[in-house]
Write a structure and sequence with these properties.
The structure is a homodimer. By secondary structure, chain A is an alpha+beta fold. Chain A contains 4 helices and 12 strands, in the order ααβββββαβαββββββ. In chain A, β4 and β5 form a beta hairpin. Chain A has one domain: Electron Transport, Fmn-binding Protein, Chain A (Pnp Oxidase, Chain A, Roll). A 7-stranded antiparallel β-sheet of chain A has the order 3-2-6-9-10-5-4. Chains A and B meet through α2, β1, β4, β5 and β9 of A and α2, β1, β4, β5 and β9 of B.
């Protein structure tokens, strides 16, 4: 059925091609967190589309689906935290990627809070940002935030968690 | 001297912290290419700040330093190509990261052209985009382009090239 749609729709064909290409594009795995002002509760999402924008000012970008709950929360609260995960934190991603596990996301004692925004002291790094600019493109909104705090764990012996080919990955030095 | 500046300047301290955090953020390595209309020549840059934006429409984002030659070329030409590199293409990155090697960048026979835009048929994937929206933030401009062509190589046995801790990296499955 998907193939039938694709053949008749150049945009669907392009999207299928881009999805295949993106499986080959490795990336880091982050938990982007914020405070949901409407629910007065922590909110978060697993994100792979996270990049630095500039060092002047120090700033980061995250692409967020406009239909997601986290999108509304970031938009309302105006601040978010990017928690870069290590390979020992893959299990955390499942609770943030499964709607049915929503209640378990912040139930562990791993989380700490800074001005009501949850962060993981055990992450490779936690980058707190204040939204400065946004841009909507199709299904997603880009939040560009200026960093106002950066916290880093002692990562001796730990590797950042990666995502590739639809699964978790580990990074190693190139021979 | 840098430390002295940092201690007196909260922004410089934040930038130093963000730079350290970014060393822990693994990512893919791409060569972003375009046609320089002013020079009537191919242009390109090595880029790590590349992400997918949306599948509706199929679109990609690249963050480009506004001082770079490639920035002016993309701005003028309005189209670019993201070539996702494999681990066998690390040597190509050097010519694109060193100003003195500018003339060597497109001198090899590896490059092919599509409507005057250079692309690498040997890349993991080549994603051709047409600029639809841009956003300036500090030193960088974000180019958001809708994909109009995606070409993929048979990558059997090949791995995508990564960048981490200031050096090349390889991705492997998480145990």
């Amino acid at each position: 059925m998907k193939d039938a749609i694709g053949e008749n729709d150049p945009q669907a064909l392009l999207a299928a091609g881009l999805r295949s290409a993106m499986r080959r594009m490795p990336g880091p795995v982050s938990l982007v967190t914020t405070h949901d002002d409407a629910l007065n509760a922590p909110a978060g999402m697993a994100a792979s589309a996270v990049i630095p924008v500039s060092m002047e000012p120090p700033s980061m970008l995250v692409a967020v689906n406009r239909q997601s709950r986290c999108h509304a929360a970031i938009e309302a609260h105006g601040r978010f935290c990017i928690n870069l995960l290590g390979t020992d934190q893959a299990r955390l991603v499942e609770t943030f990627s499964t709607a049915g596990l929503r209640d378990e996301r912040f139930s562990t004692s791993e989380w700490e809070y800074s001005d009501s925004i949850p962060f993981l002291p055990t992450a490779m790094a936690s980058i707190f940002c204040e939204v400065r600019t946004t841009l909507v493109h199709g299904t997603h909104e880009l939040f560009i935030g200026n960093a106002y705090d950066v916290r880093m764990r002692d990562t001796e012996g730990l590797d950042p968690l990666g995502w590739m080919e639809g699964g978790f990955a580990r990074f190693g030095a190139l021979d």
